[in-house]
Amino acid sequence: METSNSFLEKQEAKLKQINQKIKDEKNKIEQSLGKQIIKSANLDYATLTTTQIKMIAKKIAVFLNQDQNNQ
Question: What is the pTM of this model?
């Protein structure tokens, strides 16, 4: 019985590691996307407010959704 518990614990540890890698990769993509948008739009990090960030994100989402609907 101990060997199956040990096996399950190892599998659980692997699963946690994979989930962490996925989370890290998602964060990396989000950061990269944000940096590219800020750079392309010539925005200033120092003056961006949360409200402006949300507005920009909404505009991009609308644009992308329209683009997908037109394909």
Answer: 0.67
